[in-house]
Amino acid sequence: MKNMLLSLLVLTSVFVFSYDYTFYDLGIANRVAKIEDKPLLIYFSSPSCIYCKKFENEVLSSKEFQEILKAAYIFVKINPNNKKTVFLDKEFTNNELFSAFGIRGTPTFVFWHQDKAITSIPGYMPLNDFKKALMYILRFLYENYKETFKVYSKKDDFYLGNKKIISVSKDDFDFAKENDKNSIFLDSLNEDINPYNVYLTKSKDIAKKLSKNGALRVLILEE
User: Fold this and answer.
1) Closest Cα partner for 153 from 170, 168, 140, 135?
2) Does pLDDT of 11 surpass 50?
3) Cβ-contact 212, 159 below 8 angstroms
4) Is there a cis peptide before residue 107, judged by omega within 30 degrees of 0?
């Protein structure tokens, strides 16, 4: 019995929650983020990092946190290894990405949008503060918000960005459909609309109805 309890304690201490919509290739994640016009949240982690596990177990496991990520961000996790990706037209290993971004410790979170860095958060941030940080960045990006995070963090605000219907090429349409697990292709409106999903359609009428019914991001195939 004692050994069984010890095993359970060990399993509990190392348990890390998985976010189903996590990307693991920065090049792919960045392209999807650009297609969908969303900021990219780059999470630099390492297997031995205690505060990375704390983030994943206590913050990333939160339903509210996940909904903000699904609706408004592309989330990519980078571990130090030799896996290769093509980012900004240059090939990197994940180890080289740590150097390229000047990462000195984990966890570090880099906010990135349309090939430009916005800001970074070094170290662990509690759930409520991190949720506020996600929405603060969205206010800054989409509404040119000027107040400091300290001021914003005290406000009762829930913001996921503005609704957008984005016309995309066939290559980008197919790329998002294939690589974003959060994307749903619709050729008819026969289900409830979840504002946290990304919708893809070939119909302008369906795109307009999706947006009217609450979809925050709709991709429509260019004619």
Assistant:
1) 135
2) no
3) no
4) yes
